[in-house]
Write a structure and sequence with these properties.
Elements (H helix, E strand, L loop, with lengths): L18 E6 L3 E6 L21 E3 L4 E5 L5 E6 L8 E7 L2 H12 L4 E9 L8 E11 L2 E7 L3 E15 L2 E10 L6 H8 L13 H11 L6 E12 L2 E8 L4 H7 L1
Parallel strand pairs: 6-12
Antiparallel strand pairs: 1-2, 2-6, 3-4, 4-5, 5-6, 7-11, 7-12, 8-9, 8-10, 10-11, 12-13
Length: 255
Amino acid sequence: MKIAENDIPFEIPLDRECNVIDFHPSGIWAIEKASGILSHPNRNSENKRVLLHSSYDFEQEKYHWVDSTGKEREFYLVHRLDSATSGVILGVSNIVLAEKLKAAFLNRDVKKTYFAIVAYNGRPIRSIWKDFLQKNPTKGKIRVTSGKTGDSAITSVSMQRKTSTRFGNLALLELKPKTGRTHQLRVQCANRRLPIIGDRTYGNFELNRKIAKASKVQRICLHASKISFSLTANGECIQWEAEAAMPRAFARLLY
């Protein structure tokens, strides 16, 4: 769903593959980010496939620009999505509210729901996954591994659908991370021999190639479906939920 332009206070220089799905009058924006779009520019890259086409301040974690009326605008990111992952991402045009929402993410007060299509190995799937994850930067890229130490990663898991295809058994999982670690869901799925289809870092590369060639689905099948939270700012209690529909590409593999 794309929100009507007259329902938002000002235009943002959003990438044409993304759209505003909801806006809260306090200054919170819910955007549906497309797969392949960066949440923000990389420091040492000229990649222009970014959420907003404007300048970005890395210290304050905000986009900023001057609009057509000559007014300075700001858009603060309060969390991130991997560039390959699609779905709901939040931004805030009010710095005080942005800090409160960042704190809510940090304190695990924000509920997030993802969907992933995985290669299913036929084994029972536990409802809670717990791991310790460590980031290992190599040649400018981040790879995450699991072990006996590291940052705790916890995810609630439920099976939504199983299907038998010419590529083998696939499953649609609903994933609700209780923590927000880098590459958390991708690594946790891979650790359990449930690689996410299209994952070019932790996935089954041979299967990915077969599926991409036959179905033209050439993206990671991981989607941030829903975000909800409740917080108090300026004496106002804000209870909000934003949702992005499952990508059509998912249906091509599941049905």
